[in-house]
Amino acid sequence: MSNCAIVGINWGDEGKGRMVDLITKDFDVVVRYQGGSNAGHTVINEYGKHALHLIPSGIFTAGAVNVLGNGVAVNLKSLWGEIENLVNSGVKVTPENLKISDRASIVMPYHVRMDELEELRLKDKKYGSTKQGIAPVYSDKYQKKTIMMGELLHMDYLRARLKDILEWKNLIIEGVYGAEKSDFDEVMEWVETYGAKLAPFVCDTAAFLRDAEAAGKSILFEAQLGALRDLDMGIYPYSTSSNTTAGYARVGSGMPAGSLDRVIGVVKAYSTCVGEGPFTTEWFGEEAEKLREAGGEYGASTGRPRRVGALDYVATRYGVQVQGATELAVTKMDILSYLDEIPVCTGYLVDGKEVKDFPFPALLNDAKPIIKMLPGWKCDISGVREFSELPKAAQDYVIALEEEVGCRVSYVSVGAERDRIILR
Ligand code: GDP
User: Is 416's C-beta closer than 6 angstroms to any atom of ligand 1?
Assistant: First the structure.
């Protein structure tokens, strides 16, 4: 028995889905433990190219059971759309290989509205929300005012709770934002329509996972976004509203305290960031446009152009530390092949002083990157499968990263397709 978490070291979009898709064959169960459909993993394999938002990337692997844990926020309509897309592409999705926690919170249409209303109110001070209702639903969860997936199996109970909750929610929608109230019957109809389709997938996944672990099954935990977006340890308030760190993997899966045998931290060979907030190594203009185009850096859920910049050792070292990464997977090395020299950030200047430790969020706006240039390799590396066959400059790029951040790189990804990977 062994378990493993695949987590993001930076802002997200590092290629976690690609890594989960690669190694699921070695696991019996894949669990997504936090987040909602506000970001996506792109996976390319024999079923084609798929953008997954909620469903674990293990769904393509025959025999693997995929779980959406209690820590996940489920938009019923989005999830049903995702299932339909997969089924239409020939992927098997049944209650045998997809199980949804009865304790996962439902993202309601009024959560999406609340998200939009708040971003509108914030105007130029907005947090860069994807407006998928994620901050409102997690806030409601802490106020004990969400509907759990398991309530779909107890509709009278759900109806009564929703009535009370909506009464409270409408006080805010109307009173605070001056917007039109959410209509109970409309919300209920939405819940009934999509709830009926999803109810067969809902079960006590915590019990399923406890039994699986006791039976010696291997479990892979899949995270959404990265360490810098973690609600507690990320760049607050430009974080997401859930815990993206590996420490939350067992909590968001409803599993008792226990260890993680491996934590694979996924790092992109350069930095990208979607949305607002400090991004110290950001590039602008033509330089940024070139990298964005080369890397296809547009959000899987939103299509938004991602902000791009140099690999940031300061942020990455912090990500490794807060994730407790036991090893790293570096992705998108192939994308850097066009550069003569590759800039990396070795430290920050904060108040005129060089710092190596990731600063408190209040100091980040004024942090300036200290940049060092590393030699590029200027050739196509996408066909390479052995580390020793990479050009020396590419090997050195990886070795410098592991030395700077204090964690071994055990995978180097040189393409989006499943087999474009170097194992070290
Ligand atoms: P995730 O949310 O961490 O899974 O990341 P995303 O799926 O949002 O973004 C990663 C993107 O990079 C996806 O489009 C992947 O198909 C792609 N990708 C992953 N690894 C590689 C790689 O090594 N090379 C290239 N060219 N693309 C990659």
Answer: yes
Amino acid at 264: I
8 CB near ligand 1 (under 6 Å) = yes
pTM here is 0.94
**Mutation test residue for ligand 1: of 24, 50, 55, 331, the one with most atoms within 8 Å of CB:** 331
Residue range 331-358, pLDDT digits in tens:
999 999 999 999 999 999 999 999 999 9
Could you say which of 1.10.1660.10, 1.10.760.10, 3.40.50.10860, 1.10.300.10 is the CATH number of the domain covering 105-198?
1.10.300.10
DSSP conformational letter for 171: H
Which CATH number does the domain 4-103+201-264 belong to among 2.70.70.10, 3.40.50.2300, 3.40.440.10, 3.40.920.10?
Answer: 3.40.440.10
Domain 267-423 has CATH 3.30.413.10: no
Q: Hey, which residues are catalytic here? A: 13, 41
Contact residues for 266 (Cβ-Cβ < 8 A; gap 6+): 6, 7, 8, 9, 14, 15, 16, 19, 226, 328, 329, 331
